[in-house]
Amino acid sequence: MATVAQTVPSPAKSSTPGILLPSYSLWLREIVRFFRQKARVVGVIASPLLFWLLLGSGFAHNFRAGSNETGQSFAFYFPGSVALIVLFTAIFSMMSLIQDRNEGFLLSVLAAPVSRSAIVLGKVLGGTTLAAAQGIVLLVFAPFIGVHLTLETIGLALLITLLMSFELTALGFAIAWPMDSPQAFHAIVNLILLPLWMLSGSLFPANGASGWLRMVMHLNPLTYGVDALRNALFPATPTDFPLAVNLAVTVGFCLLCFAASWAIVNRRTTKPAA
Amino acid sequence: MTRMVTMSQPPRTTSPEAIQTLAPIELDAVTHKYGNRLALDSLSFRVEHAQIFGLLGPNGSGKTTLFRILSTLMVPSAGHARIQGFDVGTEPNRVRQQTGIVFQARSLDIKLTVAENLKHQGHLYGLSGTLLKSRIHEVLGRVGLRDRAKELVETLSGGMQRRVELAKGLIHSPSVLLLDEPSTGLDPGARRDMWQYLGTLRDQDGVTVLVTTHLMEEAEHCDRLAILNEGRLVALGSPLELKSQIGGDVVNFETRSEEAAHAIAAAMDNRFHVQAAVLGHTVRLEREQGHRFVTEVVEAFPGQIEGVSVAKPSLEDVFIQRTGHRFWNEAGSDEAAVQKGEK
After folding, report:
1. Where are the domains of chain A?
2. Where are the beta strands (DSSP E) in chain B?
3. How far apart are CA A202 and CA A230, in angstroms?
4. Which of B235, B196, B173, B177 is closest to B50 using CA atoms?
5. Is the same domain home to B181 and B318?
6. Are B74 and A71 in contact (CB under 8 A)?
């Protein structure tokens, strides 16, 4: 062994780091960065509040009656509002991926012996945490629109908000990874963001829509998240799909987006990685 | 000396002989293309244990491409590169565990403190708890930044940030350290400190160091050098070896124009039977007893010589001898010209 020790000196003390430690570290970094940038903290808390204030004021004169001129109740729009806030924060949180790449930070992560899934998981959980936090700030107002708070309602609403945050952040990751500029990312995200939300049952129920629109809505994964939130907050009201279907599709889309992101990152090619 | 090689040494390196010939870095016909452009043309060389090895070349010579391949961020189009016996193309994670990397551009998170950056890096290499704490303490001590551990990276000077980069690359005690243009943005004092420190790593820790550089005076610090030009290996050896391969002195005659230079070179060949090269307005040749030859030439071509220099060969002379053009080639590849123009 003596000769061996001469040719291969100072053995690396590290072992294979596994998935949890690097993911945790990447997640923690996102959170620490978030709290160090005070403007972002203000934004995350203030925007759901503002949203509630404006939405609530719009419905104010027939707040008691619980419906506006078109007959849709405030309660109907509430799950969609949560989805909207989560959607924006989740997808745009992955803008940080482009920043990490341009600032060189990503390069040192990619050159570390970390499983690529740990990189995706850490980044996505970071964005998920921030998006879900925002959704939860808005959910706090649920009792004001007549949601009866039970342990089940709270637990289910939190779970669905987390799942929606995760799937949308992972989607944002897959979109952001190949992009080299924030502008390009913006352009692509803007293209899909509004249709994704408008056709998610947030504005009108899928079962009320006609033909092709209804089909598109059924193909939109966000539809099931919004519907699930409706199941959770208003268990008595009938919705487009049963809760089990909504949860299954949402979890499925979480896995799909994660797998897509992982596949993109895992690719090793003869082109520069970052 | 009964240290384990690595806990996970693969079973195929069985015989001690096989292990003994293992070079920390080994290139075997490494070739790389970007589309149709050949960036690396069948590079083969070895870097021996505990050496500071320099990769010298002008911009566009393929240094960065090779650095990307060695740091496992890109797979070569053809050929193999191995670090401690592991193939960078097929066993990237094994390579990554052995290798510390200091990139040319900043890779630190400026919103985190120095210690947070190192902690994060340690986590990526599977270090945690008290072991990680002691590693952070050690590497910060080595780069002289222990008292800055709790400061945000964005508040540090550029030179200090480079030192943190170095500490970051060393957090997992790698056996091979790769540095891409490490003296970028360092003042002369900081450069000297860095080279001293690389020497310490080599001598005390037996670390094999590979440095890319486009600076001749930096290349002089290396134990061995590979000089690259347009993706090809043009010279390999210690700076002293390479320079001593040039016979005698290097003599340069400045003339008025390129035409004059060509005319004088031809006339010299006629009269003195020397092979002179023309580089722009300059006629350049290698000759023993250069100072004697100068007087002969100046007398032979009265009024046509504008200036004369006689010098011991430098690494640039090695480069010129091997490639037939200057290190910063005016008529060279577009890329070199563009990158020069940026400065």
Report:
1. 20-30+37-59+70-266
2. 25-34, 37-47, 52-56, 78-83, 86-87, 99-102, 176-180, 208-213, 224-229, 232-237, 249-254, 277-279, 282-287, 307-311
3. 10
4. B177
5. no
6. no
Residue A106 CB partners (closer than 8 Å, separation 6+)? A97, A100, A274
Cα dist. B273→B261, B265, B285 in Å?
Answer: 16, 10, 11
Residue B328 backbone dihedrals phi, psi, to 5 degrees: -95, 90
Q: What is the pLDDT of residue B163?
A: 92
Query: Which residues make Cβ contacts (< 8 Å) with residue A72, sequence separation at least 6?
Result: none
Any idea how long chain B is? 343
Angstroms from A118 CA to nearest CA on chain B: 10
Q: Among B240, B269, B289, give the residue marking a domain's end.
A: B240
B219, B240, B261 - which closes a domain: B240
Q: Which two tokens stand for residue B188?
A: 């002369």
Average pLDDT of the residues of chain A: 87
Phi (first) and psi of residue B225, to 5 degrees: -135, 145
Dist. CA B114–CA B156, nearest whole Å: 9
> How is residue B175 written in tokens?
């056996």
Average pLDDT, chain B: 86
Residue B176 domain boundaries:
18-240
Token pair 């990526």 is found at B124
B100 CB neighbours in chain A (<8 A) are none
CB-based contact B207 A1, cutoff 8 Å = no
Q: Which residues of B touch A111 (CB under 8 A)?
A: 71-73, 96, 99, 101
A59-to-A48, A50, A51, A67, B260 alpha-carbon distances in Å: 16, 14, 12, 7, 90
pLDDT tens digits, one per residue of B32-87: 999 889 999 999 999 999 999 999 998 889 999 999 999 999 999 999 999 999 99
- Domain annotation covers residue B13: no
Tell me the ipTM for this assembly. 0.85
Residues B22 and B164 in one domain: yes
B-chain CB neighbours of A9 within 8 Å are 49-50, 175, 205-207
